[in-house]
Amino acid sequence: MRPLVIKLGGVLLDTSEAMHNLLTALGDYLKNGSRPLVIVHGGGIVVDNLLKRLNLPVQKKNGLRITPSDQIDIIVGALAGIANKTLVAQAAKFNLNPVGLSLADGEMTVAKQFDPELGHVANVEPNKADLLNNLLSSAFLPIISSIAVDENGLLMNVNADQAAIAIAALINADLVMLSDVNGVLDADKKLIVTLNSAQIAQLIEDQVITNGMIVKVNAALDAAKILGRGVDIANWKYPEKLTALFAGEIIGTRITA
């Protein structure tokens, strides 16, 4: 059965109830001998909290975090350290057999700097699936932070959506993007079950899809084009629905190319 990559938004790491809900659903799902699962996560809220405690500025350009050389170690510590090991610790409590990784482990991805003005920020491409396939065949739950290493051995920060797409492409997996929204809503605030690129363009033009949801939808649309199949945007708040989602049902909005 095709593996499933679950992309987690950083807010979940700051919400104990949401973490409990998600891991309960994962535990229920994995008990039934289901398809292999991989978690890919960011952790912007963890980074922001750590930078604040250290009295360092949070800078962004076009919604992407500027990562100067004097901050990359701190951001790596927040994402590959605090965020990743928090998830591993919680997953271990639920007996999910977790393994904490970064995008660089086992040369899973190749990273290239995205924009010199952003500093240590990269895009990643799928590279070697050996490590991931070995872990999945041995019933481990890989939990992958969005930290990569480029060809010069420099640590790089990667947008978590883009990281999840690369990992899904690497192992030919389905992709679900979990966050604190139910999915895409129409002008009457009703959930839209499926959307294609033409419908998305129209809803953005009509200002029905706005602000942060534009970023989410475009990331899912990019993923759908790369993977050649629908990508789900769904909410982590309802554990009873998550099990159905992991089994392939639509509980939020499915984006297709």
Automatic annotation (TrEMBL):
EC id: 2.7.2.8
Any one cellular-component term (Gene Ontology): cytoplasm
Catalytic activity of the protein: N-acetyl-L-glutamate + ATP = N-acetyl-L-glutamyl 5-phosphate + ADP
Keywords carried by this UniProt record: Amino-acid biosynthesis, Arginine biosynthesis, ATP-binding, Cytoplasm, Kinase, Nucleotide-binding, Transferase
Chain sites annotated for binding substrate: G43, G44, R65, N157
Signal peptide: none
Primary location group: cytoplasm
Annotated localization: Cytoplasm
InterPro entries per the UniProt record, alphabetical: AceGlu_kinase-like_sf, AcgluKinase_fam, ArgB, Asp/Glu/Uridylate_kinase
Pfam families named in the record: AA_kinase
Pathway annotation: Amino-acid biosynthesis; L-arginine biosynthesis; N(2)-acetyl-L-ornithine from L-glutamate: step 2/4
Protein known as: Acetylglutamate kinase
Organism the protein comes from: [Actinobacillus] rossii
Gene responsible for this protein: argB
